[in-house]
Amino acid sequence: MSMLTHGLERPLAWAERPLQISATRNAQLKRLAFGALTLLSMGSVLTALIALRTAIYVWHLHA
Length: 63
Known about the structure:
Number of strands: 0
Strand content: under 5%
Order of helices and strands: HH
Number of domains: 1
Shape: elongated
Number of helices: 2
């Protein structure tokens, strides 16, 4: 038997049991996800403002 395929015929134990997350942990994960989404959104807005300011500066430079 090859070392690469050794053990692949057995079922995965972690895939058979359901995932159980406590309510506290679930709330923490949701809070973390919303915080990350907020941070990414603020970064996108900041990037758009910098791009707009740069475009206005270049437009005035050539006028």
